[in-house]
């Protein structure tokens, strides 16, 4: 009977829902992220939140490698309790740009491409940099800009996590990328 209890407890602890929150906010950023800061607040007044770390997520619309890093345009969606973009729960409040300014380990845009006509979902821990502009049809529109401190690319089949740490796309079965990650299953 004790073995059954241990087995059930380990399954709960290793489920994507139980692990995802720890995966999305790395330990070294945990106390620094403004968890109550919402996208709408930053959209209305990005300069007031410049330098703050926040969580934001949504569907990747475009990803492009530039000289300074990878620029990702994201259609914002609110985050669920597990910090996964909840695309069915509420409508989007707009777009934002997340830019990876990493010196060595810059995100490869291929990791963020659509699969079978379904956009990739991401959750970003980012520093508010202010605003930038995106072109929507024929109109230039200002949107919030975040410097990526950590990004999680969600698997479309089971919304399991793919934390991205380095040059190579993360592997499906628990390998966390270039620097490794302590969660293997």
UniProtKB/TrEMBL annotation:
Q: Does the keyword Ribonucleoprotein apply?
A: no
Q: What domain of life does the UniProt record list for this protein's source?
A: Bacteria
Keywords assigned by UniProt?
Lipoprotein, Signal
Per the UniProt entry, the signal peptide is 1-20
Which Gene Ontology terms of cellular component type are present?
outer membrane
Query: What PANTHER family does this protein's entry cite?
Result: OUTER MEMBRANE PROTEIN SLP
The protein's name is Putative Outer membrane lipoprotein, Slp family
Organism, by scientific name, is: Nitrospira moscoviensis
């Amino acid at each position: 009977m004790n073995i059954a209890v241990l087995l059930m407890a380990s399954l709960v602890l290793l489920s994507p829902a139980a692990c995802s929150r720890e995966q999305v906010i790395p330990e070294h950023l945990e106390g620094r992220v403004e968890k109550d800061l919402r996208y709408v607040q930053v959209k209305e007044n990005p300069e007031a939140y410049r330098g703050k770390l926040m969580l934001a997520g949504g569907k990747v619309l475009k990803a492009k490698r530039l000289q300074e890093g990878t620029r990702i345009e994201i259609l914002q969606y609110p985050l669920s309790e597990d910090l996964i973009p909840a695309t069915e729960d509420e409508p989007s409040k707009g777009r934002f740009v997340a830019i990876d300014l990493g010196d060595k380990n810059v995100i490869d845009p291929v990791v963020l491409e659509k699969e079978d006509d379904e956009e990739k979902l991401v959750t970003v821990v980012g520093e508010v940099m202010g605003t930038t502009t995106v072109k929507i049809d024929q109109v230039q529109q200002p949107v919030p800009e975040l410097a990526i401190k950590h990004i999680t690319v969600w698997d479309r089949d089971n919304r399991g996590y793919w934390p991205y740490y380095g040059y190579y796309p993360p592997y499906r079965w628990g390998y966390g990328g270039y620097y490794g990650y302590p969660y293997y299953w």
